[in-house]
Inverse folding.
C-alpha cells in the first residue's frame, strides 16, 4: 500500500491499484478517456516521488524528466505527491474548422486551423475536448500543409463522432490539445523497409506517415495495407493508387474481409494479407493503426515474424470509457 497526495489531501492506494483508480475511488475527478495508457488524457505530474517507468511510456523525454506520467497505468511503488499538468505543459488551444468533406459514407475529413501553431509529426494524435468529453483523433496531414487533417468515422451512438459529423460546422471553433503519441516516421533509417497496416480510419495516421516518409526521401520499400469489410469504408483508394504510381518504392494493397471482393482488391483481413505477403520482418519497421484487437494481435505476429518490438509503432484506437 502506498500514499497518494493530491491537492493537500492524502489517499491510500492499494497494491496493484492505479493512481487514477485510487483517486476515482476516493471521489476525486481526474480527466481520463481510454484508461489504457494510449490517449494521454489522464496525464499527471509527480511533484514528489518517482513514478514507475512504464507509466511514462510514450511521453516525450522532456515530460518524463519532469515527472509526468499516465495515471491510468501508474501503479505506484512508492508514495507520490501528484498534480494535474500545468497549462504550460499541455496547453489546450482553440482551432477553427476550415473544412469538412465526406470521404466515404460515414467517414469525413475534418481540417482544423489552430489559433496558435501546433508543431506535430504526421501520425501523432490530438485530443478534442467538447460536449464535456474528450476523444483522440490521429493526424493525417503533413506538418507544412497549414492545417491539421483528421479522418473521423461516425460510430453508432457515438457521442463525439456524431456531434462532429452532424453538429459542428465550418467556421466554428473547437478546443484541442496535443500533439501526443510516438507513432510517426523517423528518417533515421531511410533504406529500411516499412510495413503499414490500418483498418477503418486507422488509415489517417498511415496516410500522414507514408507521405511524410516519401517527402523526406525514404528509399526503402513502403507497403501499405488498408482493410475494411466492404468497399463502403475503404477511402482514399484513388489517391493511394496515384501515390503508388508516382513512387516506385510505395505499394498499396486495399483489402476486403467481406464476401464481395471486386477485382483490384485483396481478399481477407488487412493484417492477414500483409503478414502472408511479408513473412520475414526482421530489420523492418512496422506501423499498426486502428481497431485495438487487430493492433494487439498483429503486434505479436509481427514480432514473431522477426520485427523487433522497438520497431513496431502502434496506434490502437481504444474506445473511451465515458
Ligand atoms: C490514440 C487514438 C487515436 C484515434 N484516432 C482516431 C481517428 O483518427 N479517427 C477516428 O475515427 N477515431 C479515432 N479514434 C477513436 C476516437 O477517439 C473515438 O473513440 C471514436 O470517435 C468514438 O467516439 P464517440 O464519442 O463517437 O463514441 P463513444 O460515445 O465513445 O462510444 C459509443 C459506443 O460505440 C462503441 N465504440 C466506440 N468506438 C467504436 C469503434 N471504432 N468501433 C466499434 N464500436 C465503437 C463504444 O464502446 C460505445 O459502446 C482514436 C482513438 C485513440 C485512442
Amino acid at each position: 500500500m502506498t500514499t497518494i497526495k493530491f491537492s493537500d489531501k492524502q489517499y491510500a492506494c492499494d497494491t496493484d491499484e492505479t493512481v487514477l483508480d485510487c483517486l476515482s475511488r476516493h471521489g476525486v475527478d481526474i480527466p481520463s478517456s481510454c484508461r489504457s495508457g494510449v490517449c494521454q488524457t489522464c496525464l499527471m505530474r509527480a511533484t514528489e516521488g518517482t513514478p514507475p517507468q512504464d507509466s511514462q511510456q510514450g511521453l516525450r523525454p522532456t515530460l518524463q524528466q519532469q515527472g509526468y506520467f499516465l495515471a491510468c497505468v501508474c501503479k505506484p511503488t512508492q508514495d507520490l505527491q501528484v498534480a494535474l499538468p500545468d497549462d504550460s505543459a499541455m496547453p489546450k488551444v482553440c482551432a477553427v474548422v476550415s473544412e469538412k468533406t465526406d470521404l466515404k459514407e460515414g467517414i469525413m475529413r475534418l481540417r482544423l486551423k489552430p489559433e496558435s501553431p501546433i508543431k506535430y509529426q504526421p501520425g501523432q494524435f490530438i485530443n478534442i475536448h467538447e460536449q464535456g468529453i474528450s476523444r483522440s483523433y490521429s493526424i493525417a496531414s503533413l506538418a507544412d500543409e497549414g492545417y491539421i487533417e483528421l479522418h473521423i468515422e461516425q460510430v453508432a451512438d457515438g457521442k463525439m463522432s456524431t456531434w462532429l459529423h452532424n453538429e459542428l460546422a465550418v467556421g466554428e471553433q473547437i478546443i484541442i490539445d496535443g500533439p501526443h503519441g510516438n507513432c510517426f516516421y523517423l528518417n533515421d533509417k531511410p533504406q529500411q523497409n516499412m510495413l503499414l497496416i490500418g483498418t477503418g480510419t486507422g488509415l489517417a495516421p498511415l496516410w500522414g506517415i507514408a507521405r511524410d516518409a516519401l517527402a523526406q526521401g525514404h528509399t526503402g520499400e513502403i507497403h501499405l495495407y488498408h482493410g475494411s469489410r466492404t468497399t463502403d469504408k475503404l477511402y482514399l483508394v484513388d489517391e493511394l493508387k496515384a501515390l503508388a504510381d508516382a513512387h516506385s518504392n510505395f505499394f498499396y494493397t486495399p483489402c476486403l474481409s467481406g464476401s464481395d471482393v471486386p477485382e483490384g482488391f485483396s481478399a481477407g483481413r488487412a493484417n492477414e494479407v500483409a503478414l502472408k505477403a511479408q513473412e520475414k520482418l526482421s530489420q523492418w519497421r512496422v506501423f499498426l493503426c486502428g481497431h485495438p484487437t487487430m493492433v494487439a494481435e498483429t503486434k505479436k505476429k509481427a514480432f514473431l515474424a522477426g520485427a523487433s518490438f522497438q520497431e513496431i509503432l502502434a496506434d490502437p484506437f481504444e474506445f473511451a470509457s465515458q
About this structure: The mean pLDDT is 93. The first strand starts at residue 2 and ends at 6. The pocket of flavin-adenine dinucleotide is lined by residues 34, 38-39, 125, 135-138, 150-153, 155, 157-162, 201, 204, 315, 317-320 (CB under 6 Å).
